[in-house]
């Protein structure tokens, strides 16, 4: 079959960073084509050159054999290309309908908006995702009132409303619940059957294998291979992604590829013998939590399971002093833990890596340096006030190295980093504060396989040093791999506790589902 | 993943002039234009004079910069009035006697800081929009001034203050310029090298994230307003030293220029981005422009229009720069 899409020799440089260095991608009609690679390898940049939001420095793009000049989003639209970006871009103040038809509002004469046509169009696009929304389609609700997963679905619907020949999904599943992922996959399969080319980026390889036909792997802005997924193992794919990293300061570079990185073999993090009880939570109640009580030992990793949105994020926020608590309290090492403000919680040794990186975790326009320093600089400042530029730089550098964050300069705005590297910055700022209690809300969101393992190793390391770790994750594999114990939450209350041997992916799914009303397996 | 890839040499090529450089270039162009239309405009004495005028605006705008960086629509419209009040208090307590300088300055700055504290509390605790809060504060301070003076300013600057501000120290430069340099360095240090400064940028860039990073956002904001009023008070004292005696609307006209200087200097009105170097250059641009318009004998409506056009041209240039960069 002749190629629908052919990209060759695509280059793009940002200041000191060569984001794309001769990348290529060839894909055919009716294919789901995975675009894979480590954080910062250029996946999003390549996607954006297709969508017209980034104009490459050089390179060639052919669609259906004809050379395509994509100078802006309009050109992409005209060519039948629609994209869902990694960063959510819904307009919170607009309704779901308005978001979906944004940019292609069916106009009446004189340019007045035809509301009825817009609604029909939005409803058609959203209908296929009905199962991903709890209850009715929220056509007239402001997008801001939806959960992150639902907003993501709205973005996909917006792309579909353009009836594309080529659909680009850049980490579109990162903020979806498992059930929503299934719905999305069904839609993608329908599109494939209808001859659409879907370019799919995700760091979750199980998703890639479940959905995609072929995969193109990028590394350092270059295409290293395109493989047929039916004849490739997960291991082989990971090897392609992490092999011979260009300039990595770790171990022996000429050891067998990937041998030094425990990318696949999950080293069990279970520390059977934990220390004394360190954190005691008693009857914690907010408007979304009901009477939550539990204890965690020093050195223990406590997972939070259940369907997403059952109060897991709220529980983490409450323990960080960022929710209004109506009853209950918490003790850390026998002393009352202040739950009245994040500042006090942080000073008492609590750290939170929040679930919504852009809104809660980072300062997009500020330098990487400040983003990394902020949580811990008071420890290094003289008189709690005067900062030493050298000391701050040293601290930031140490984190950049420890987490292998791919950056140009510490002075670049953190917004210029790739998604996964931004996430590492958000984690890194707290590691510098040496917290006693670490609250993690989906810490490996958008992080590549190798970095995921690094983050897991860090979580285990924190526990080994005697910290209390509480982990919420939308990825059951992550929960099984890291948790010593899992609390399954349902409607803001603890519904079940799973310990050591009973923490399996199957068990997690069944205990989450069994509790949902009217759910049949 | 792979270690940072830094390729330094190319960065130089990618460099584009930032707002500070652009504003600086505009200032130079204005000076040259002045010299062309009216020889002598760029003479040494004349330039020193312009810088002296710029100094007052610049010092008032230190606080304005801080408040605007704090974001959330932050702005302090009461700076002019507070500077006036501080000068009035200073003048009356000094009463022309060097022995009274310390208590006079201390009292003036304390009152200014207290006004800033009220602004800050109103904005953070009562959630009054900064524009409304500080606009309302103008009226309150005006009332305080009337009550304090009974409509008639009294006293006089102490001679030591006057000679500190006006005295020629080196290169025939007035002491004021050195004080400005000192305060400017203090402002830059405060913003770039203190926990307060970094917290301030963080709050301005993303308040929710700042709070979730353990930053005491409310406290930082209150301190921003206190500092704004205090720097305004300081500018009032310097003005007092310059004019020797005060009148009831001494510094009022600095309200809008202080905001304009900050914006011309490239600080984002939305908060989180900017700095004092830009503001200082912005104050110079505004002052040179005023000087030029005065020299050309352009008055009234046209002056306002020209001012507005220069502001718009610069801001649209900055907008273009930002787009080019991203
Ligand atoms: N606007 C920008 N300005 C400067 N550098 C940028 C910009 N956008 C991307 N980069 C850099 O280009 C490189 C590639 O980024 P890109 O977002 O394409 O990576 P990615 O493969 O999508 O990574 P991730 O898996 O983390 O999303 C990164 O090093 C990033 O820092
Ligand atoms: Mg990306």
TrEMBL record, chain B:
State the Gene Ontology terms under molecular function: transmembrane transporter activity
Superkingdom, according to UniProt? Bacteria
Query: What PANTHER family does this protein's entry cite?
Result: ABC TRANSPORTER PERMEASE PROTEIN YPHD-RELATED-RELATED (PTHR32196)
Q: Which UniProt keywords apply?
A: Cell membrane, Membrane, Transmembrane, Transmembrane helix
Q: Give the main location.
A: membrane
Q: Which residues cross the membrane?
A: 20-38, 50-71, 101-122, 128-148, 169-191, 222-242, 254-278, 298-318
GO cellular component entries: plasma membrane
The entry's protein name is ABC transporter permease
Q: Where, per UniProt, does this protein localize?
A: Cell membrane
Q: Record keywords: DNA damage included? A: no
Q: Which membrane topology term applies here? A: Multi-pass membrane protein
